[in-house]
């Protein structure tokens, strides 16, 4: 027997909503370190793609060409010239571009070209913020994300040449307004 030709999306939505409500019964969103959980059927957005490292970089470059408002890149490590070119191209078109990078890793020189690439971005008008994580004296900024307008790439892919040789995975999400506000809030916590 094959799949039905017409899905009953209302029934499917009701089932998913019931499962989500059951699973999160008793969850305290106000507790220390609680995740922001959205139980609306639309959630914070929609998954559009699951990608390996090379696909992630190719998608990132494509999205930066299409940006109309803003780009925010977060990185632990960073040295890809094609990402630098995409960020600079967007900035030259008047797009608001910000890079949030790990301070310790940048200043240590562990990723050979990281400080040079970030310096080039800063010199050409891109906002570059070096941060230490969630505490003033310790911690790292370890996220690897790219927000382009309302599209978000998030995952394990570092923005480096060496990452292209690893088994990295990222997802592309299309965020609703609430999702964009949520990621902007998370970015605000970093700086």
Class by helix and strand content?
A: alpha/beta
Parts with pLDDT < 50 across at least 5 consecutive residues: 1-5
- Number-wise, the strands total 7
Across the major sheet, the strand order is 1-7-6-5-2-3-4
Largest sheet: 7 strands, mixed
Strand content: 15-25%
Q: Supply the number of helical segments.
A: 6
Could you tell me the radius of gyration in angstroms?
Answer: 19 Å
Helix-residue proportion: 25-40%
Describe the 3D structure.
The chain is of the alpha/beta class. It contains 6 helices and 7 strands. A hairpin with a 2-residue loop joins strand 5 (145-148) and strand 6.
Task: Please outline what is shown here.
The protein is an alpha/beta fold and 191 residues long. The protein is 37% helix and 22% strand.
Main attributes of the structure:
alpha/beta, seven-stranded mixed β-sheet, 7 strands, 191 residues
Write the layout of secondary structure elements.
Elements (H helix, E strand, L loop, with lengths): L8 H15 L21 E8 H14 L3 E6 L5 H12 L3 E7 H6 L5 H10 L3 E5 L13 E4 L2 E5 L13 E7 L1 H14 L1
Parallel strand pairs: 2-3, 3-4
Antiparallel strand pairs: 1-7, 2-5, 5-6, 6-7
Helix pairs in contact: 2-3, 3-5
């Amino acid at each position: 027997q094959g799949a039905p030709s017409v899905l009953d999306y209302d029934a499917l939505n009701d089932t998913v909503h019931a499962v989500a409500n059951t699973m999160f019964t008793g969850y305290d969103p106000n507790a220390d370190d609680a995740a922001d959980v959205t139980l609306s059927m639309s959630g914070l957005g929609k998954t559009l793609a699951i990608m390996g490292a090379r696909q992630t970089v190719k998608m990132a470059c494509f999205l930066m060409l299409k940006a109309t408002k803003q780009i925010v890149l977060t990185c632990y490590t960073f040295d890809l010239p094609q990402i630098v070119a995409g960020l600079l191209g967007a900035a030259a078109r008047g797009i608001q571009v910000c890079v949030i990078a790990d301070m310790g890793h940048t200043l240590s020189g562990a990723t050979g070209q990281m400080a040079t690439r970030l310096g080039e971005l800063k010199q050409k008008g891109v906002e570059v913020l070096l941060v230490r994580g969630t505490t003033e004296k310790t911690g790292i900024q370890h996220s690897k994300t790219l927000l382009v307008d309302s599209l978000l790439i998030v995952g394990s892919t570092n923005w480096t040449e060496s990452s292209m040789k690893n088994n990295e995975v990222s997802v592309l999400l299309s965020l609703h307004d609430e999702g964009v506000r949520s990621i902007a809030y998370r970015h605000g916590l970093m700086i």
